[in-house]
Design brief:
It contains eight helices and eleven strands. With 298 residues, the chain is of the alpha/beta class. Helix 2 packs parallel to helix 8.
């Protein structure tokens, strides 16, 4: 019996989905702003009988934009822990000026990188029929700066955050202006800093003890991000992360802190410790009954 054109079309679409959407995906342009793109890892068993609801892990690249490498590093974890991995790509120079750092500050001219990411999360949730009202976020280096600031701005959207070796940190300090502190936070972002929501988020911070080079992270007068207090958190990434930890803990935010022996500035060398943290949080998350949508803060 010959297949109908409709049946052949359905089979072709199913095959394309298996190749391009499941497992390691192809790269998709953001529907909100196609200057930005993303890739995913989706376990092939998604939707199978007896499968736990998928959770989402967002992995934010650093200045080197190695987003596919991070997708590969998290794919095994995602397969065995019923997670989807979303890795955005925020390219260098999207405004034609060669700026490598815009995404780290969340705002670049009229671009709101936090909103672009949230729309990517919604897009992936709709594509795979998943509820990603909350997700986990890991970022390293420049991605660690993004994760630090995103957690301050949108804690109600996170079930965990891991901040890896940021070159600059934003402390919870209402006496210092953005980006060193949070003095003008609500004016800049149009919403207040929600410390109660942040205190409910499991927070992880990680860096290598050998991550001691300072050439890329020292702010000098005349630099585009120089401001009073820009270097006060410490000369190296581990010291700046320690300062961020103290800032969070002083505000009542609990932090799991890892300094890894013999590790330089290498995000992939930290992934195992990040995954250990996420696995623990996932076990606790799945052991706790989910609140109804109407009871979720925000």
């Amino acid at each position: 019996m010959l297949e109908t054109p409709e049946a052949s079309s359905v089979q072709a679409e199913q095959r394309a989905r298996a190749i391009y959407d499941l497992g390691p995906s192809t790269i998709y342009a953001s529907r909100r702003d196609p200057r930005f793109s993303y890739c995913t890892y989706v376990p092939h068993h998604i939707g199978s009988a007896g499968t736990r609801p998928m959770q989402l892990i967002v992995v934010m690249h650093g200045t080197g934009r190695a987003f596919v490498n991070y997708r590969e590093a998290f794919s095994g974890f995602a397969k065995w822990n019923d997670c989807i991995v979303l890795c955005p790509l925020f390219p260098v120079g999207v405004r034609g000026d060669g700026n490598r750092d815009g995404f780290k500050q969340l705002i670049e001219a009229d671009i709101r990188y936090d909103r672009i990411l949230l729309d990517m999360v919604a897009e992936v949730g709709e594509k795979f029929d998943c509820d990603f009202n909350r997700f986990a976020l890991f970022g390293y280096s420049g991605g660690g700066q993004f994760a630090n600031r995103f957690a301050l701005l949108h804690p109600e959207r996170l079930w965990a955050v891991s901040i890896g070796a940021p070159g600059s940190v934003t402390q919870i300090d209402p006496q210092q202006g953005w980006w060193v502190g949070t003095q003008d936070f609500d004016t800049r972002f149009g919403k207040p800093l929600d410390l109660e929501a942040l205190r409910r988020v499991p927070v992880h911070m990680v860096a290598g003890k050998a991550d001691i080079e300072t050439w890329e992270i020292t702010h000098r007068p005349g630099g585009k991000h120089f401001m009073p207090g820009a270097n006060d958190a410490g000369p190296t990434r581990p010291e700046r992360l320690q300062t961020l930890r103290r800032s969070f803990e002083a505000a009542g935010v609990q932090v799991v802190f890892d300094l890894l022996d013999n590790v330089p500035h290498n995000g992939l060398a930290c992934v195992g410790r990040v995954q250990d943290f996420l696995a623990r949080v996932l076990r606790e998350l799945r052991a706790t009954p989910s609140p109804s949508p109407s009871s979720i803060p925000g």
